[in-house]
Specification:
Layout: E1 10-14, H1 21-31, E2 35-37, E3 40-42, E4 56-58, H2 61-69, E5 73-79, E6 82-87, H3 88-94, E7 99-103, H4 106-113, E8 119-125, H5 129-138, H6 144-159, E9 166-169, H7 173-188
Parallel strand pairs: 1-7, 1-8, 2-7, 3-4, 8-9
Antiparallel strand pairs: 3-6, 5-6
Helix pairs in contact: 1-7
The structure holds guanosine-5'-monophosphate (5GP).
Length: 203
Amino acid sequence: MSKDNKRKFLVILISPSGGGKTAIFTKILAENSEIKYSISFTTRKARNNEIDGVHYNFISEEKFLEMKESGDFLESALVHGYWYGTSKSYINNMLKKNHIIMDIDVQGAKQIMNSDIDHITIFILPPSREVWLDRLKGRGTDSDDVIQVRLESAEKEIQEIRDFQYLVINDDLDKAVNDIELIIRAEENKIKRYINIEDYYGG
Ligand code: 5GP
């Protein structure tokens, strides 16, 4: 019986900046062709290395609010002054064949948690506060002010950690990725996710 006999679901990864989320996403996508990345819509400008339609769909605020008004978003949130959102039709379409991993903030995650769309939530944390600060500073891309803002918003997010299902500590990248893959495999095998379970026992 093919793997397609199991329902696909959303995998929401939540992590404060400096948690190492980008490296985790990259590795999971490289290793698991059946898992796809959800490309969000945003009103912020593209950074130098970002490509429209690959990293984000970059749109105007006017267009974003129009889509929001029309109910096009599964979830949306204002993060650091810009709008971010996930298209409902895009997700429903991809879920027919693939698990989808999402990089969204806590507000967006909570909207999905309150919806009836099938999902799991995984919080990712660095192994310690020292490592976390080193990672934030080590990027060399952000000023002390920016780091301070990120720290404060991360601390708020961490206070809500008990609302989520899984916690993965990102001490070692390979281990963190392996843990996430194991979580996805276990979730995939839940009885409720088999579409025609009778096919396996003739019942
Ligand atoms: P950045 O602009 O640095 O790529 O992302 C800023 C924040 O927006 C991150 O916390 C990221 O998780 C969040 N984000 C990215 N896409 C979405 C989205 O579609 N919905 C929500 N709610 N947050 C998002």
